[in-house]
Design brief:
By secondary structure, the chain is α+β, with helices and mostly antiparallel strands. The protein has one domain: Rossmann fold, CATH 3.40.50. 24% of the residues lie in helices and 32% in strands. A six-stranded mixed sheet has the order 4-7-8-9-10-11. Strands 1-2-3 form a three-stranded antiparallel sheet, with no helix packed on it. The relative contact order is 0.12.
Length: 146
C-alpha cells in the first residue's frame, strides 16, 4: 500500500513576470505565470529555485522564520497577503495599508496579541497603520504609515 501526500501551495515569490510557488517547507513546487492567491514573499534575493528542491535565498534566516510565521498564521484568524523582506525586520501586510513590522520570530511568538489587536482595529474600522511587534508581547500601533 502506497500513501501519496500532495504538497499544498503555501506561499509565492515573484520572479520577473512569474511566481515561484512553495509548500510550507519552502520546497519549490512550480513556477506560474498567473498571480496566485497566496501570501507573497517580497524583497528576497533568489539563489536557486529548482522544482522539487528547497528554495535557496540569501536571506535564509528570515525565510525560515517567515515560513514558521505563516504556519502560526493559519492557527489564528490572521492572514498576511504579503511579507516584505527588504530589511532585517519584515513587514507582514494584512491590507495594503495595514501591516505588522518586526522580526519574524517576534511576530510569530506574539500572534495571539496581534490577532486581538487586529480584531479591535477591525471593530473600529481602522484599515491603515503600522503594528510594531517586539519581544515579550510588546505591540505598538501607529496610524501613520512609514
Amino acid at each position: 500500500r502506497i500513501n501519496v501526500t500532495e504538497r499544498v501551495e503555501y506561499a509565492a515569490v515573484p520572479y520577473g513576470e512569474s511566481f515561484v510557488l512553495l509548500d510550507n517547507e519552502g520546497t519549490v513546487l512550480r513556477v506560474s505565470e498567473e498571480p496566485p492567491t497566496l501570501p507573497l514573499l517580497l524583497g528576497m534575493t533568489l539563489v536557486e529555485m529548482t522544482p522539487g528542491k528547497a528554495l535557496v535565498v540569501e536571506q535564509s534566516y528570515l525565510f525560515t522564520d517567515t515560513l514558521e510565521l505563516l504556519e502560526i498564521m493559519e492557527e489564528h484568524e490572521v492572514y498576511f497577503k504579503k511579507i516584505d523582506f527588504s530589511t532585517v525586520m519584515i513587514k507582514a501586510y494584512i491590507y495594503d495599508t495595514l501591516y505588522c513590522e518586526g522580526a519574524p520570530g517576534n511576530i510569530r511568538d506574539n500572534m495571539e496579541s496581534v490577532e486581538k489587536l487586529l480584531f479591535e482595529l477591525y471593530q473600529q474600522e481602522i484599515t491603515h497603520g503600522v503594528i510594531k511587534v517586539g519581544k515579550d508581547n510588546y505591540l505598538s500601533f501607529s496610524p501613520v504609515i512609514e
